[in-house]
Each structure stands twice: as structure tokens, then as C-alpha cells.
Amino acid sequence: MARAKVARKSTSIDMTAMCDVSFLLLTYFILSATAKEPDPLDVKLPSSTYKLKVPEKDISILTIGTGKVFFETAGPDVRAATLDKMAEQYKISFTPEERKRFSVIGSFGVPIQNLKKFIAMDGGERKKSGLETGIPADSLNNQLSDWILNARKSVAELHSEGMRVSIKGDAAEEYKTVKKIVDILQKQKINKFSLITTAEGGK
Amino acid sequence: MAELDTSSGGGKKGGKVRSKKSSTKVDLTAMVDLAFLLITFFMLTTTLSKPQAMDIAKPDKDEKNDQKLELRASQTMTILLGKNNKVAWYMGEAGKSAPEIQNFSQIRQTILDNKKKVKESTGKDIVMVIKPTDGANYKNFVDIMDELLITGIKTAPAIDDENILDNEKAFMKQQGIL
User: Fold this and answer.
1) Residues 6+ apart with CB under 8 A from A110
2) From B43, which residue of chain A is nearest by alpha-carbon distance?
3) Does the model's pTM come out above 0.95?
4) Half-sphere exposure of A6 (CA within 13 A, CB side)
5) Which fold has domain B73-174?
6) Does B76 touch chain A (CB under 8 A)?
7) ipTM of this model?
8) Which of A175, A187, A193 has the highest number of chain B CBs within 10 A, making it the mutation to test binding with B?
9) What span, in angstroms and rounded, lies between the C-alpha atoms of A51 and A194?
């Protein structure tokens, strides 16, 4: 009797569909990943075992290092609205072009008087210009307090949410400087805020 | 590479000479490998690069509201943060018990010991008062808050950087950590 022939099948699998799917996912992840904005103020964060994630919306981040304070608020719409309010308060007018440019600037640390000049520069020049002297935060000229207050108002108007404040402090910064900033927050009745830390391994 | 020759080997008998058709199939295995590697990379970096946050609540500072909560001396442990990464701690009231100077590596054990002691003697949880002084740096403050989390202190710590008592200051000056 003749042996039954087993049909030999090809071992190659059609990878086209799999390739399609994986590139679709790849494209999605690349696009959804937000480009990391370079921090103008280089801070070394202290580490902790806290595992709370920092929200991405409705938040302002104060970066503290070498005695200077930099301010950043999340979202281009909030940034533009905050700038409008600041402009009104300090009697400085910004053109729509300047508003647009400002809304993509992340963390900045210039007094509002120099802000116009600062906006006009491009990324590389900003760092070199020496304009970034930190936002004035003393009792006579407390622009930081105004920035925070106006950002809170903008967040409340645009998103009807309470804004969170996070502090990103350099590990070696004196507690005195941090306390000064915290006191400004507490004057506005912000008694709860978060400190941004890096994750500590283990435990 | 990924394809085996499975043709049955016949076809030589036919008289016609056929022009050899090269396969139009491209081996996509390597490409898929690469794509998945990149997917993994982007997935992990987007979720892992998020910084961690520590929530801090400070007592309300209202000029009009001058109420002060008294803490029971038997269940209070005060930690003073000084310079050179040193801390001073004492139990109960200031001045009645001599503070002790410690490093950050030792304080965890101390907190655990005191927590146990307070629980045994009063049946209540320990209350922590953290007093960062001007000599301390930001890292010390974060570290001590972290120690409280690690040691499992459930009650919210009182962070008091306003009322650093004179005898506390005097002691820290004497020990050279202020």
C-alpha cells in the first residue's frame, strides 16, 4: 500500500499584517510621547520612596536652584491666559505673535520687564543671554506670587479645576530659600503642594 | 533564512524551459522585530520618565487665626533638622529632655523605637513634629519626610519652621549644627 503523502506546508508566515500593526503602534507611541522640554535651570532632584505621579494638567511647577526661582505652568492655553492677566496687571502689552511664542515656552525665570526681549529670542540665545535671573520673589516686587495667582485664575476659568503647585528643588538648596517660596504659597492659602522627587530604587 | 525550500523537486521533466520567477515576498521578520523593540522602548520611556511627587500639607498660616494646638508631651517626638546633614531629636517638651544628635542613617531606627515605645506606654500613635531650621537643606527635608513614610507614621506630621524655640536653637548652636 502506498504511503499517504503528507502535504508539506510552507513554514513561512505572512508577516505583513503584524508589521502593519506594530508600526501603527510605534507611530502612536512616538506621537503621544511629548518631547521633553529642556530645563533652563539644572536641578538635581532629591530621591524618595514616594510613588505618586505628577499630573500633567492643571499644574504649575516652581523650580528652585541656586537661589533662583523659575516658573512653569502646564498647557499652552493656560500659559497664554496667564500672560494676558500678567500683562494687564503690569501694563505691558504683548502682541498675538508674542502670546503664541510664550505659550510654547516651558520653564522660564525672567522678570516681566525683560519678558518681551526674552520671548523674541530663540532657544539657544535664551540660555546665553543672561536674562534668566529668576523671577523676583521678594516682598517689594513679588512677581512670582502674581504669576501663581494668575495661573490659578486661568486654570479655574479654562478648566474649572483647582491648580496644583509642585516644587522642584535642588537637593543642595538651603531650606531657607524653599521656605521663602512656601511662605509665598501659604500667603495665597496654598497649604498643600507636592515636592517633585526622583524614585529611589528598591524597598 | 526563515523560509524552507518545500518544493517537491519535480518539474524537470517538463520540456519547456521556464524563466525563473523570483519571489516577491520580502522577509519581514527582522522589521517586525525592530518595530516591537522600538514600541517597547517608547512605551517604557513615556510611562517611566514621569517624576514622582511627594504631597506635603503645611499648617494654615492665617494671621487672624492664632489658635495653637497643644500636643501631648508623652506622644510627641520633635525632630530638628540642622546643617551638615545632622538631626536633633527629643521626646516630649523642649528643654525637659536633652536632645540627641543623629545622622540620617540612624534616625529611622530611632523613629521606629520611639513609635513602639509610645504605642506601648500610651496606646496612642506617635505624633511627629518636624522643625527644619535655616541650616538644613532641601534634601534633608525631603529625606525626613521620606523616613516618616518608610517607618509608617500614619498621623500627618506637623511641619513647623516658624516656632523654633530658643532652647532648641541654643542646643543646636552649642552642638554646632545651626
Assistant:
1) A118, A131, A132, A133, A135
2) A29
3) no
4) 4
5) Nucleotidyltransferase; domain 5 (3.30.420)
6) no
7) 0.71
8) A175
9) 12
